[in-house]
Structure formats: structure tokens, C-alpha cells
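hi! just following up on the protien thing from before. the input was this:
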Amino acid sequence: MVAIVWIVAGLGLGVARLHIGEAGAWTSRESEALAHVREYSPDDVHSCDELLAVAAERLSERDAGSAPVARWYAFERPWEGRVYVVWERGEAMLGFVVEDGDVKPDDETRLVLKRVARSLGTE
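and the predicted 3d structure came back as:
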């Protein structure tokens, strides 16, 4: 009986692992949302991509040389009509909601982008 439980559990985990492998591919809406976020200009001068590059550079300076890679994540929620996009670098995480091509940063993200833009002499 114990052997049967182990076999069933192993098969279940194997099937779950196969499905996890499929999760790495982004949907077209997730890819489009990411492009909208990267092009988004909170200060009407710099793109979000430019501001996040400056933020990542400053985080590298603060972290004394350890350079974690910045990563993008996107999560489509079709029942909400939204895509959630997250930029993560080390412990820093910034979030955006994209709805019909309209980018809305969360409050913390808006503040970070505003501070970076201000430090570049805009806003």
C-alpha cells in the first residue's frame, strides 16, 4: 500500500513539473503589456526603461558590487481585463497594472520613478 501511495505521489509530481515548464512562455498580451511598461514615460521625458536602468545602477552602488539581475514578470488576468507587470532586482520590486494599453504604476513604484526622474533634473 505504501508503495502505491509513493508511485501515485511521484506521478502527480511529475505531471505537475511538466505543467510548470509551460509557464515560462508569455502570452502575447503579457508581452504587449511589458512593452507598454518599458515605453511608459512617467515624467514625459524618460521612458520607464531608462529610469529603471538608473535605479538599478544606484542599487548596484548601494549593494557594494553584488549585482543581482533585474527581472521582469507579467501575469495576465483575463477575467479582470488586466495584466500585472513586475520589475524585480534583488529585494527591490516595482509593480504596474496594464489595462487596455494604459500603464498604472502602484503608489510605491510611482514614488520611486518620480524620485529617479527628479534626480535626473526632470519633474
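Residues 25-119 form one domain.
The first helix runs from residue 2 to 22.
cheers
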